[in-house]
Every structure is written in C-alpha cells, then in structure tokens.
Amino acid sequence: MTTLVSASDTLTRDALTVLQPGFVGTTAPDWLLRRIGEGLSSVGLFGRNIASPEQLAALTGRLRAERDDVLVAIDEEGGDVTRLEVRHGSSFPGNYALGSVDDVDLTRSVAAELGRRLAACGVDLNWAPSADVNSNADNPVIGVRSFGAGPDLVARHTVAYVEGLQAVGVAACTKHFPGHGDTNVDSHHALPRIDVDLATLHARELVPFRAAIAAGTKAVMSAHILLSALDPERPATLSPQILTGLLRQELGFEGLIVTDGMEMQAIASTYGIERGSVLAIAAGADAICVGGGLADEDTVLRLRDALVAAVRTGELPEERLADAAARVRALAAWTQAHRARGAESGPGAAVQEGTAPGTEIGLVAARRAVTLTPGELPYTPVTDAPYVAAFTPVANIAVGDETPWGVAAELARLLPGTETGAFDEPSVDAVLAAAKERRIVAVVRDAHRHPWMTEALDALLAARPDTVVVEMGLNQAPPRGALHIATHGAARVCGRAAAEAIAGVRDGV
Question: Which of 94, 174, 184, 212 is the most exposed place for a label (fewest CB within 10 A)?
Fold first, then answer.
C-alpha cells in the first residue's frame, strides 16, 4: 500500500525525478502523464512501446505535451539489442561487428545515424554504448554487445560511439560500470562476482570508461556485479566505494549515473527494488532504471515512497536526493536545448556528413564486418533455393527472443523458395530429411559456448561437406564448412551481408 504524500512537496518531486520507469502499450497511459505532471522527469521505452517511427514520434510528443523537458530513454544498442526495430531486426550492426572492422570513423557514423533516427522519434537518452571489455568469451550476457576483448580497442570505439550519438543531440549512457565483460553469470538472473585485483581492473575494465568520461559522455550506467577488490559486500550499483569513490572522485565523472534495471535478480532477489533503490541513490546513483519487467504505476509509487521514507528516517540524506534530481534536470536541459536548436535549424541540420537518410551506413558497416573463410575445395555460390538450418540457443533477456535473426529471410529475398527450420538440439537426421537435395546453410550463434551445436555441426558436415556455416555470435570456434561466414552479430543487416556472400551477389548499395 502506498503512502499518501503531497504531489507538490519538493521531496516527493525529487523522488519522482530520479525514477526512469517503463510502461505497457504504444500510447502513454493516464497514470504516467499524471506522474509526469507531478515531477516524474524520465520515461524508459522498450520494444513493447514501439510499433513504428510515426507512432513513436506521436508517443514522445504526447509525453512532452505534458512536460517539455521530460527525458525519453531507450535501450537501443543496435545489433542484437534493438527496440526501434524489435520486430524486424536492426538496420545497424552491433558493437562486435564495428570493433572487428576497427574503423572509428565508421563507428562514429553508425552511432550518429542511429542517434539521428532516435532524435527524429523524440528519444534523447540512449542506454548505450556498452563499454564492457569482453575478456571472458563464455560471458552469457555481453558477448557481441562488446566491441571486443582489447581495452584500447573498446576504448576508442566507445569514444567514437559517444561522439556520434551526442553530436546529434542524443545523450549517451556508457555501460556497465565498472565493467561486465569478465563474468560468467547473467545479472538478470543472479549476482555475478569478479575477483580481479585493482591493477587488472585499471588496466582492463576501466580503460574504456576513462576514455568515455574524457570524451564527455553525459551518463554512465552501473552494473549489478560484485567487484571484491573494491567492495566485497555490495554490488557496484549499491556501492559508495564504486559509484562515489571510484566513478565520481577518482575518475572525475560529473554527469548522470543511471542504474541498470532494478528488477534484475542480482538486486531484486537480495535487496528488493525499494531497498535497492534507496541504497543506490545513497551510494551515488542519480537515476533509477526500472520498467523492463515491472512497468506499472504501483512500481513508481512504491519506489517514490521508499525514497521519501528513507529521507524522513535519516537513512538517505535529503541533500543526496536533491543532488541526484538536479543532475537529472541538468541532462534534461541539455537535451531540451539540442531539440530547440534542431527545430530552429530544420530537419537533419545536426546530422554529420555521411549519415544522412538513405546512405545505408548500417549495411555498409555490416558488409565490412563479414569475414569469409573458404573450405578446402573452391566455394561455389548457392544459386538454387537452399535449406537454412538455424541452431538456436536460448536468448538472454537483454537481447530478447522477439527479435528475428538469421539469414533465411534475406536468402529468400535473393533466392526465392528458400526454406528454413529451427533446431535446439543435435537433430541432424531431421535437418537432412527436411533439406532433401537442397544445399544446406547452417546458422549458429556462439557455437563455442554450446557443445550441442558443435556436435550438430560435426554430424552435419560429415554427411554434407558442402554445407555453408554462418556464425552470428562470437567468432571463437575454428572455421568449418565449404564456406565459413562470421558476421560478428545477428542484426538484420548482418544477415543480409551473409546472404549476399552465400549467393555470391551484392544486392543494392
């Protein structure tokens, strides 16, 4: 049951200001508009809120009719993690593909074009980029969301991404501080623990974050990970040593600190979202991200009242809550000023050269990211409709299972009549029976992490050596097949680039 509080109370308004909640539906519910009027300063968008660019623009316009400086945030990394194109797959390759090309100008252009599309829809805070150094190839949640395993490579592409987004007026939120790359646990399900010494932390995990801060990233998102060398008791999101001591004081970050989703089990199962939110603000966070799983008014009221009660009991200093709210408002003012300048200059005025609509920069980048490894015999392009066997692992929560991936749709466009089937176990006899005499294209994702995929490929290649293998995750397993294609991600444009290579054509751009 929620506590009755005055909507005009400064303390209550500050408590609402630091929340970044989600909601259900493609139109703004009345409760959300009412809370915006009472002081709620941010709204988080997910795939469930988006049907089309036109609908999204109307939605954000309705939010800003209630309050012009409301921050509209989204988790739009591009690549495997897309909300703008959740039902079709992204028009942009993700970080791993961009890191594999290692052209910072390309990364900057991709980020700027993605930012332009967000800004055109009224979105002005992107919970991206991921600056995690993916030093653990078995990481179940980062993987292709990282630019790579080298700190310097990740740093220079993080900077380019931040610059590209912010040049078009969309605030970047560099994540997941202090680095989620060396984990073998998904923090959506449990609390990961990283037991590295401080020297390793500074030489590896913190390098991209230092670079992003120097580049002026407007926000940083905390990770729900336990870093024993800095705080053996509390995860980074709840740790004063990490958020205030390391991020604020040592690294000198003055922007907005946003938490990762508070309903994730790494926090919720141990602390609960109310207690976790109080501890996060007390530790130095400025904005509470919630709404991926809990997206209703009751959640907002529970968190609001927990923060107010913590101040009144002395657990949370009122000055800390006021400082957090002030940082939210400062970022809102920055984004509002950029929108105003864009409106004065006309559409597209802030777009960087080479990123105007129609340049297909995402497809250009996806094509450059493809790595082809021929087998022992000369490769013969597929000219008749093939059979695509997709070996599908369970998607992590960040990626979601609603976004299509693979090469079948793009191959069907190039080679009408292409058929496909999905397999989640080594049922090679079923693949062969379904394929009949057709050429087989086997599509995998992180084959090195799934022994059953390796087993399936072994059997399939033994039976049909002319099989084409497409790896759409981390390219860690040895290349195999008549042609091995590494796309370095599973975005729609990555599938298109792979389909072109399979068919031996270059379609369009």
Answer: 184
CA nearest neighbour of 369 among 101, 128, 144? 101
Q: What is the DSSP letter of 172?
A: E
Point out the residues that are catalytic: 188, 260
SS (H, E, C) 73-128: EECCCECCECCCCCCCCCCCCCHHHHHHHCCHHHHHHHHHHHHHHHHHCCCCEECC
Beta strands in 151-250 (DSSP E): 171-177, 193-194, 219-222, 226-227
How many residues does this entry show for the chain?
509
DSSP H helix total and E strand total for the chain: 18, 16
In the predicted structure, residue 288 carries a pLDDT above the cut 80: yes
d(CA 500, CA 506): 6
Considering Cα of 56, then 61, then 63, then 64, what sign does the dihedral take? positive
pLDDT tens track for 67-93 = 999 999 999 999 999 999 999 999 999
Contact 96, 147 (CB under 8 A): yes
Tell me if 379 sits within 8 A of 124, measured CB to CB: no
Residues 133, 109, 500, 451, Cα dihedral to 10°: 10
CA distance 275 to 281: 10
